[in-house]
Design a protein that fits this description.
The protein is α+β, with helices and mostly antiparallel strands and 361 residues long. The chain folds into 3 domains: 2-201, Transferase(Phosphotransferase) domain 1 (Transferase(Phosphotransferase), domain 1, Orthogonal Bundle); 223-284, no CATH class; 288-352. The chain is built from 12 helices and 11 strands. The chain has helices spanning 2-9, 14-33, 90-93, 100-116, 126-135, 152-161, 173-184, 190-193, 222-248, 251-260, 267-272, 278-284, and strands at residues 36-37, 46-50, 56-60, 67-68, 290-298, 303-306, 309-312, 316-321, 326-331, 338-342, 348-352.
């Protein structure tokens, strides 16, 4: 297997690494054409051999957690996590639905590992590794263990595969193969001529990822998070106006609004009706939707606080009203304290602490 090759040699020479990656991509292309996403692509699932003529022959196997994308009844659902942490795409780590671009991400991890002799993201436990996939930038790939420089164009191809946002990756393995062939022929690959924008630092707070459904409360791209925040703010304002309308807006104006909305009888009937009581007015306002967010912590015995209130240790969950994000604090002695914003958009949020001096409560 490719895993045995890496275990024995530590890395793969660049020409062979590129050929192995291309043949893996060809195998994925056939699987994707049949509507199958592997979801657990890793060196242990890649056989590397040679033909009688001495050419490399690469095969993919172990489709044990593969997803049939065309099935009417999906084999997985949002919130379920399948795969191996070291090769898991950010969307898999968050427990979101996946498509062929998750396999492209895993292929990029393997290409990085073959060239660099090590994984781009490493940690002491699965949670921390999965978190790095979600939030940490891919380390630079500039030289192989043999001292051979990695061309920037090849590094760009690897980074395109490893984009945090699936929309920034190659849309298909065919596109990856075409770009790899451009590089191998001496042409400029698309990944190098059209580099993706680097992620904004504040778009993701450091999470040590993992757990069955890893997700970050702060991983939403800034533009989308800002837009969503505006919607929530607007909903909150509208809800407040509705609640206050009965008490602060003149009755005639309220009656007019009701008539315009078709929610009240003719004016004479409205005039004859007694004014609504405060309890009736409150009952007419739809309460905001509430979401329960489960926290997955690393280390597992970290403590969670909401303000000065101690919420406890794992398992711990927080109820968040839609449009009213909450900020929780995660602490553990010997680790740096973290504050995490929970907006209710994710059912499960992974929070990882890094070792260091803990801040005061």
């Amino acid at each position: 297997t490719l895993a045995a090759v890496l275990q024995r040699d530590g890395f793969v020479a660049m020409p062979e690494a590129l050929e192995i990656a291309r043949q893996i991509a060809e195998g994925l292309e056939a699987a994707h054409a049949a509507g199958v996403v592997h979801r657990d692509l890793k060196p242990e699932n890649v056989f590397v051999g040679r033909t009688p003529e001495g050419r490399l022959a690469v095969k993919i196997f172990d489709f044990g957690v593969a997803k049939v994308t065309r099935a009417k009844n999906r084999l997985t659902h949002v919130g379920a996590v399948f795969g191996t942490p070291s090769y898991m795409s950010p969307e898999q780590a968050r427990g979101q639905s996946v498509d062929q671009r998750a396999d492209i991400y895993a292929l990029g991890i393997m290409l990085y590992e073959m060239l660099a002799g090590e994984l781009p993201f490493q940690g002491d436990d699965p949670l921390s590794v999965m978190a790095q996939h979600v939030e940490r930038p891919v380390p630079r790939l500039t030289v192989t263990p043999a001292g051979v420089a990695v061309p920037p164009a090849l590094e760009a191809i690897v980074h395109r595969c490893l984009a945090k946002d699936a929309n920034d990756r190659y849309p298909t393995v065919a596109a990856f193969i075409a770009d790899l062939d451009r590089f191998r022929s001496g042409a400029v690959p698309i990944a190098a001529s059209q580099p993706i924008a680097p992620p904004q630092p504040e778009a993701r707070a450091p999470l040590a990822a993992g757990g069955p459904n890893t997700a970050s409360a702060t991983t939403t791209p800034p533009a989308r998070r800002k837009s969503r925040g505006r919607v929530w703010a607007l909903l909150a304002v509208l809800s407040g106006l509705v609640a206050l309308a009965w008490f602060w807006i003149p009755r005639a104006a309220v009656e007019q609004v009701l008539r315009d909305a078709g929610l009240a009888p003719a004016s004479a009937a409205v005039a004859a009706a007694p004014p609504p009581t405060a309890s009736a007015a409150r009952a007419s306002v739809v309460p905001p939707k509430e979401h329960e967010v489960h926290l997955v912590l690393s280390p597992h015995d970290a403590h969670v606080y909401l303000g000065d209130k101690h919420l406890g240790q794992m398992p711990v969950s927080v109820k968040v009203q839609e449009g009213k994000p909450l900020t929780v604090t995660v602490r553990r002695k010997g680790y740096r304290t973290r504050k995490v914003v929970l907006d209710g958009s994710q059912k499960r949020v992974v929070v990882g602490l890094s070792k260091g001096a803990s801040s005061s409560k």
